[in-house]
Amino acid sequence: MENTVVKIDNLVKRYGELVALDHFSLEIKEGEVFGLLGPNGSGKTTTINCLLSLLSFDKGSIEIFGKKMTPVSYDIKKEIGVIMQNVIVSEELNVYENIDYFCGLYITDKKLRKQYVEEAIKFVGLEDFTKFYPKKLSGGLLRRLNIACGIAHKPKLIILDEPTVAVDPQSRNKILEGIQELNRNGVTIIYTSHYMEEIEQICTRIAIMDKGRKVAEGTKDELKRMIKNTETISVEVLGLGEDILTEIRTLPHVYDVKYDEKLLVISCSGGKHNLIRILDVLQKREVGFGRVYSELPTLNEVFLEITGKALRDKEE
Amino acid sequence: MQVFKLYFKVLRKNLMTPLIFIIVFVSISIPMSKAASADKAFKDTSLKIVVFDEDGSEESKALTEFIGRKHKITELENDKNKILQALYFESVDYVLIINDGYGKKLTTGETSGMFSTYHMHDSYSTVMMTQLLDSYVGSVRAYMAGGMDASDAEQNAADAVFSEAEVTIARDKASEDFGASVSSYFRYLAYILVSVIISALCPVLLKLSKKEFRFRTNCSCIRSSSYSLQIIAGSVVFIMFVWGLMMIVSLTQNGGIFRGNAWFAVLNSFIYTLVCTGFALLICSFEPSDTVVNLMTQVIGLGSSFLCGVFVPLSLLSDSVIAAAKFLPAYWYVKVIEMLKGTEAFDGKRLAMYMLIESGFAIALMLIALVVNRMKYSSASVKPLASKKERKLNNKISI
Questions:
Q1: Based on the domain organization, do B220 and B328 belong to the same domain?
Q2: Is A88 on the interface with B (CB under 8 A)?
Q3: Confidence of residue B266 (pLDDT cuts 50, 70, 90)
Q4: Nearest CA in chain B to A38
Q5: How confident is the model at residue B171 (pLDDT cuts 50, 70, 90)?
Q6: What are the chain B neighbours of A97 within 8 Å (beta carbons)?
């Protein structure tokens, strides 16, 4: 049976009269890559800050590795690696010294630390930049340095708060591969990001937060099944009459049909063989058609449907 | 000791400005202090005199010889334009023409028309030469009236006028221990301590106390108190190093180890070092940018120095400036120096009071910095890592 690494129970965090976390609960098992999704201001960073005891909370409890997490739980902190949203390194130290500094906050044995630092450098691919100062590094290299600083002490739990912001695709790919490799080595990962494709690519389980609450939780497939749209079928077709469109609308599981004289887009909710039934109608009516696509919903659609499409950064 | 080591790595990268201050200070203060020392020594003055002897008598030759005993007789063409030019460019200080008939007039007691002169109006050399000639002529006549012949009278007059008096500058015990050279050094030290400590300490403290850096460190197994203690330890080591270095340089000014009351100056400079640290901590508590730190260094350093008697002696400052300066620690620092130097009569109780006031400033500055930091910390702990955007959005979430 998998051990629970993180257990957040009924967490409430208020800022004055504002509720940032509203009875938020979460359980993360050992070896998971857990994605924490949510629009801006949904409480992701507050959750992480509470998790790391950087922030006190009003109600609830947090357990990590089966022990209660407090600001002085140094034995727990030793097993946690943190990669913050912003690159937090010292401009006065070079790559090697920066990793050594952060690793030294956990590992006091110099010999062991040297080995860990070198392994971290190799892991993120910064071997050629060890003497470089942060100012001389590109955005991608800086992110990799940030990650190396967070993982050098070989933690069992790594928390990554949007680690790929403003990173080029190559560096992003390298970072994601690295995270997967860490996971394969048995590290549990909590990952927050706005990039849905990243979450889809690496996370084994995902929780979606909104307004301080957990609004959905499950695997990618479980989440996709939670929304109305389960399949979107697009057909390139010319000159469709209203009668044909009406017939398609009456097909089982079809809940929305859009046609712009060139492309027919049908949204289906559940069911199997939707595509075959639609193509049957077109053939029966002797309508010629071009390319046909059938798309399953993306995590982005799931996210937008669950959290709504209204802009969160807009002033009221 | 990771944070302690980091402290010095960050400090090393920010040492350029303080190093410039120290180098400039040492290279300027040493000659300035020497000059201050030299001002207090007694030195006889010798002038460059041109003598045109139109009389050619024994008496006029004796006079020329008399002048040449103390002053330098300079050759010059007897041309009015050249004489005026030489006086203008100060290549000569005084031009004396011994008129024809000088010898006769000296023996007959006639006083008018003995000399003609070219000189700079109201210059000290003119006053000096006029007095010298009057004394000489008066003495010669007095000796002759007493029955001496002209030659003996001239000899005796010359000896009498140039008889040297031994000059001793009276100094009390306190000022003997604390000479002019070292007192100037300690006065200028007030400026350099402020400049070096603020410009070196602030960038390091600001970087290590940066909120995000601090939070990142708080995620690790290092205790928050240990983090703070290592920063304090780093600061103490650095401050003691700066103070120690300045004291070593001051030993060269003093010409060896300090004696007697000079130790009060050492203690005074240590207290002022604490004041400077207080200034640095207070500035850091407002998290200013590097530009503002540089600006504050200049404002506090130069402002205190000009207002409190570091650059301009207190005796030259107006009452209103002194009244304002009393609210600045540098004033009390300078007051201690003045007392040790002997400008103000030495009084142990008052000296202690000046130092206590100075210490009070140091404690007050540090306490204010602590309060500001506490207030900042308590407001930051409400929501440490939330972005502005996140705060705005949270404001919209209703219960």
A1: yes
A2: yes
A3: very high
A4: B390
A5: low
A6: 9
Q: Are residues B95 and B127 in the same domain?
A: yes
Q: Which of B137, B161, B185 is the last residue of a domain?
A: B161
Extract the runs of DSSP E, i.e. beta strands, from chain A. 4-15, 18-29, 33-37, 59-64, 67-68, 80-83, 157-161, 188-192, 205-210, 213-218, 231-237, 254-259, 263-268, 289-295
Is residue B235 over pLDDT 70?
A: yes
| Ranges of chain A whose pLDDT falls below 70 | 1-2, 309-316
- Whether residues B155 and B201 share a domain: the answer is no
Q: Are residues B63 and B31 in the same domain?
A: no
Name the domain count of chain B: 2
The mean-pLDDT minimum among A22-36, B85-99, B156-170 falls in B156-170
Question: Residue B11: its pLDDT value, please?
Answer: 93
Q: Is residue B273 part of a domain?
A: yes
Residue of B nearest to A153 (CA): B220
B247 and B318 share one domain: yes
Regarding whether B152 and B24 lie in a shared domain, the answer is no
Q: Residue B218: is its pLDDT beyond 60? A: yes
Distance from CA of A33 to the nearest CA of B (A): 20
Tokens of B1: 């000791």
Where residue B202 falls among pLDDT bands split at 50, 70, 90?
very high
By the CB < 8 Å criterion, does A215 face chain B? no
Contact B11, B205 (CB under 8 A): no
Task: Name the minimum distance, in Å, from the CA of A150 to any CA of chain B.
Answer: 9
* Inter-chain touch B385–A54, beta carbons under 8 Å: yes
Q: State pLDDT tens for residues A62-80.
A: 999 999 998 889 999 999 9
Domain boundary among B130, B161, B192: B161
pTM reported for the whole predicted model: 0.71
Q: Shortest Cα distance from A104 to chain B (angstroms)?
A: 6
Best A88, A147, A190 residue to mutate vs chain B (most B CBs within 10 Å): A88
Supply the pLDDT for residue A165: 81
Statement to judge: residues B128 and B153 lie in one domain: yes
Out of B215, B222, B397, the one facing A54 most closely (by C-beta) is B215
Domains contained in chain A, CATH given:
4-225 (3.40.50.300), 228-296 (3.30.70.980)
Q: Which domain holds residue B221?
A: 2-38+174-393
B393 to chain A: which residues are within 8 Å by CB?
40-41, 312-313
How far is residue B340's CA from residue B186's CA, in Å, rounded to a whole number? 11
List the beta strands (DSSP E) in B8-157: 48-53, 72-73, 94-98, 115-119
Please state, in angstroms and rounded to a whole number, the distance separating the CA atoms of residues B153 and B81: 37
How near does any CA of chain B get to the CA of A167, in Å? 20
Check residue A167 and give its pLDDT: 80
Is B9 in Cβ contact with A93 (below 8 Å)?
yes
What percentage of chain B reaches a pLDDT higher than 70? Answer: 87
DSSP H or E run through A224: helix A220-226
B123: number of Cβ within 10 Å: 15
